[in-house]
């Protein structure tokens, strides 16, 4: 068995997952992930969780590790205090070094960003933004990172000018799995027409959202709404009110979406219907490119 | 100890609670409640649950029992099929008799109401509506029943003309207790000014709701938002978008609110600020008056 030796290790460490990439001169040599997210670790468990995943990639010397995400929050491994917008998404001088017992590790955490007014915060997305700017040099415009907590980000001249967070994915999970709407709602099936109609309705009349939700339950009970249509309509309604509230971000702009393929495709379709061109960037590629952009600050370390 | 003997028994049987009232010629003689709601009972557990609570009130003969709420749903004791609006809130001929092993009981269930388009359903509220009409003879206008699933109801000439359900209370519970907003959110404390400002903002700009929620978390992290203000603002935002969507119901109307005192007072205050007069009816009194209105259909039973 030939071992993989990493030049450095890129780490995306969120609330529920830990993902690590063994990086070589030409990119990713290997990747690994585990469920050792911040939510399941105490402070003294981080180093062991990292070694379980990335230990096989370490040589005898010191290997740089650059990590972004909730690992740098107050409840994480060590706090990497927020930087304040407007600012570049990454600043090499602001990486926070974490002491480790294992001398083969030289770990640095990427700080998140905060915006004073309207108050907002991000952790992890700043790295994807930096990656997007590395992949699209000179990009000026809007980045949208849909997901559990969707972010809309205005980028200009290499800086994050402003951003806003929407709890769309979390609302979808709560309403589809834990509310009265879970009755009569599919867990996987999809009805594209139901999604598109609901999304269009919610963008056009977001002020009606509070009257739209219980109808999913009522139509299931008395009007034969299918579980797939119920789930797709819920998703369309929630993405629709996000797009309605985010209108000042995307109106008349060019948008690049960063996230899961299917989700980004849904957002891109909705934006196209509003006359807004949108391109899609793969989330993992942005994360890795962002961590790579932060890494030179750590030289020389071995 | 002198026993209480009921002429009949009024029962409000919902998802989480069972409430029974021993009724005499002049009203309530005694009341009792338990956590034996529909959610914790199987079909063959209902009679025993009722006897545990109301057994002491039974005489040797047959005692009429009139019950409303989820007890009459498909997952309840026995299904009392929905009646279709427009219709009176109660119809004596539509009560559903439930066979019991104990011959002292003569149980009837009140059916809920359904509306074909927009699809909607209610169970339990129809009885409170009937009670409100008994307490306010000749009432024409709008009834609002705020709560887990708020109902707005247009009543005219003694009939329910239309209604609409809002998941406001359930959304508040999910977001305040199970979402990321639970961090930094009080469980009881209240900030009236924060509530009023959020409510006013949400009524005026409901299309911004998706951008307002995560700010509660962000302001807690970086701007010192207190847990009491966070909870009150969340409540104001959610009630505000309900009122915005329900505008066609209340605009230019007279409104009677049925529900918990503090909640009704909050809705009444918001409606007054919009120039809409609102009176408050106690929920239990409406339930009992509604069940009493249904009861004559069961004579003679003893």
From TrEMBL, chains A, B:
<dbReference type="Pfam" id="PF05035">
    <property type="entry name" value="DGOK"/>
</dbReference>
<dbReference type="InterPro" id="IPR042258">
    <property type="entry name" value="DGOK_N"/>
</dbReference>
<dbReference type="InterPro" id="IPR007729">
    <property type="entry name" value="DGOK"/>
</dbReference>
<protein>
    <submittedName>
        <fullName>2-dehydro-3-deoxygalactonokinase</fullName>
    </submittedName>
</protein>
<dbReference type="InterPro" id="IPR042257">
    <property type="entry name" value="DGOK_C"/>
</dbReference>
<dbReference type="GO" id="GO:0034194">
    <property type="term" value="P:D-galactonate catabolic process"/>
</dbReference>
<dbReference type="GO" id="GO:0008671">
    <property type="term" value="F:2-dehydro-3-deoxygalactonokinase activity"/>
</dbReference>
